[in-house]
Design goal:
Layout (H helix, E strand, L loop, with lengths): L6 H8 L8 H4 L53 H14 L13 H12 L10
Helix pairs in contact: 1-4
The protein binds zinc ion.
């Protein structure tokens, strides 16, 4: 499982009713877009504070030009470079069947659902 640092963020995500809509119906802005952290095509919008279902990075607009900076926004005290390294180490060590790279719905999202279940939060409906 992918380590999760921001439980409040995943709870916000779980209460988002748009999660229940079919993914195709939500791709209206030219997406999917490449996540600046894991670099997979997992985002439906760009620089719109969407959380990547694969790595958990919240896309606040940070990218290569300022990857080493800690912006202190939704990604807390982690720079994009540090998040990339954490994700790369995780993927190198695991054979996570939930990873997008293995056809899953995303390592972060599958882990987030388990955390929500354990905490007694209402389980989100499947996106598809
Ligand atoms: Zn990502």
């Amino acid at each position: 499982m992918l380590p999760i640092g921001q439980v409040h963020t995943l709870c916000d995500m779980a209460s988002d009713e748009s999660r229940s809509l079919p993914r195709r119906a939500r791709l209206m802005d030219g997406g999917p877009f490449k996540c600046p952290c894991c670099r997979l095509m997992t985002l439906e919008t760009s620089a719109s504070f969407e959380i990547c279902p694969e790595c958990g990075w919240e896309d606040d607009g940070q990218d290569d030009f300022n990857a080493d900076k800690v912006l202190g926004g939704p990604n807390g005290l982690e720079s994009l470079t540090a998040a990339r390294e954490r994700y790369a180490a995780y993927i190198a060590e695991s054979a996570d069947p939930d990873s997008v790279t293995r056809g899953g719905e995303g390592s972060w999202w599958s882990t987030a659902k388990l955390v929500i279940e354990d905490s007694g939060e209402k389980r989100p409906r499947q996106a598809e």
